[in-house]
């Protein structure tokens, strides 16, 4: 795409020059209404906002025998240009590139999430969370362990069996003998 000048001739008289684009690539041609465009007349003022209202093919409108565009400017007014005087605004292409980058990043995140979900699904068997159910034999073993505990009638830690109580009493007696009955840390022997 290049910007060039051509004389503005009306009824055989030249009234100045106007700008137009030459070598317009097909992806730069505005086709859809509502897209941001850049008329050649405002090529050097890229901050202005122009939006395509309608595109006319050659012979479709009597005012545009060679085809043209109706464009809405910032103030809401409608301007008319020939087909070679308007292209898609460069910021539209920048925005499309930005969207492609975002989509690429999003696809990478989705791949990571899929890998993470694949790891998690190992732990969820048959759609159920947590530890797998115990077999019948394991349930019976646990019940037997609970029945063998000494019941004190109190809440909290279960009571000790008589053998364990005897072992603990012997350990306490041995420690008392080493310390000599005094409080505090027991003395080392040897």
Give a structural overview.
- With 190 residues, this protein is α+β, with helices and mostly antiparallel strands.
- Among the domains are: 86 residues, no CATH class; 36 residues.
- Helix content is 34%, strand content 23%.
- The protein contains three helices and seven strands.
Tags for this entry?
190 residues, 7 strands, 23% strand, 3 helices, 34% helix, five-stranded antiparallel beta sheet, alpha+beta, rod-shaped, two-stranded antiparallel sheet
SSE arrangement:
Elements: E1 2-10, E2 13-22, E3 36-39, E4 50-56, E5 68-72, E6 78-82, E7 86-88, H1 90-123, H2 136-148, H3 162-179
Antiparallel strand pairs: 1-2, 3-4, 3-7, 4-5, 5-6
